[in-house]
């Protein structure tokens, strides 16, 4: 299961999780952290993978080529705490490079050769292909994806594109609602002011 962390030297947050056999670092935008905090997720706590998927899909969580800041020193210490077997959302739901399965720095690309197609590739695999269009995955909505395929006349899509279309169609609201339901409610510190009538 994903684990929430805070960088030591800055007021920013990140998430560690296992995808495949590798530790993946997802950096959080302030809105992503706010969503997790409002759902009662605290530093060092695990949370359902579906929430990380939703944060990734909305652009509130993102990856880089490699871990930044002090996140690179964390995975070995926390590896035993990552991805308990009871995690109900499989790691295969995460978009990954169709060539090497990396989750870092993914783009939807239009491949020109050997045949005209679309796929999701990481930066290392993009460098090995003849590419015409390349859009960071965090910017790709269903509308943008279908518009790209139509505008460029791409009829052949890789399984990574099909999987991402399913992810964009998925509904995650019930996962957030479950967390809010189980979150302990704070007691009011002051009684509301009596109404003046």
Q: Could you characterize what this model shows?
A:
There is one protein chain. The protein is 29% helix and 21% strand. It has 197 residues and is an alpha+beta fold. Residues 65-86 and 186-191 have low confidence and may be disordered.
Characteristic key phrases:
alpha+beta, 2 domains, 29% helix, 197 residues, single chain, four-stranded antiparallel beta sheet, 21% strand, four-stranded mixed beta sheet
Topology:
Blueprint: E1 3-6, E2 13-19, E3 22-28, H1 30-38, H2 49-58, E4 61-62, H3 75-78, E5 107-113, E6 117-121, H4 123-126, E7 130-136, H5 142-151, E8 156-157, H6 159-169, H7 173-182
Parallel strand pairs: 6-8
Antiparallel strand pairs: 1-2, 2-3, 3-4, 5-6, 5-7
Q: Nutshell version of this structure?
A:
The chain has helices at 30-38, 49-58, 75-78, 123-126, 142-151, 159-169, 173-182, and strands spanning 3-6, 13-19, 22-28, 61-62, 107-113, 117-121, 130-136, 156-157. With 197 residues, the protein is α+β, with helices and mostly antiparallel strands.
Give the strand content.
15-25%
Major sheet summary line: 4 strands, antiparallel
Give the total of beta strands: 8
The helicity comes to 25-40%
Which structural category fits the helices and strands?
alpha+beta
Strand order of the largest sheet: 1-2-3-4
Mean pLDDT: 78
């Amino acid at each position: 299961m994903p684990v929430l962390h805070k960088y030591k030297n800055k007021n920013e947050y990140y998430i560690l999780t296992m995808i495949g056999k590798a530790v993946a670092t997802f950096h959080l935008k302030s809105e992503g952290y706010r969503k997790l905090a409002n759902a009662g997720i605290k530093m060092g706590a695990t949370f359902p993978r579906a929430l990380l998927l939703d944060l990734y899909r909305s652009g509130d969580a993102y990856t880089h080529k490699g871990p930044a800041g002090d996140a690179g020193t964390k995975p070995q210490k926390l590896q035993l705490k990552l991805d308990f077997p009871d995690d109900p959302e499989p790691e295969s739901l995460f978009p990954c490079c169709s060539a090497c399965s990396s989750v870092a720095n993914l783009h939807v690309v239009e491949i020109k050769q050997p045949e005209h197609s679309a796929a999701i590739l990481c930066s290392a695999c993009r460098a090995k292909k003849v590419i015409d269009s390349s859009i960071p995955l965090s910017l790709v909505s269903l509308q943008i994806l279908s518009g790209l395929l139509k505008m460029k006349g791409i009829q052949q899509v890789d399984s990574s594109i099909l999987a991402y279309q399913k992810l964009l169609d998925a509904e995650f609201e019930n996962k957030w609602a479950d967390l809010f339901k189980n979150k302990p409610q704070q007691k009011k510190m002051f009684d509301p002011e009596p109404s003046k009538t």
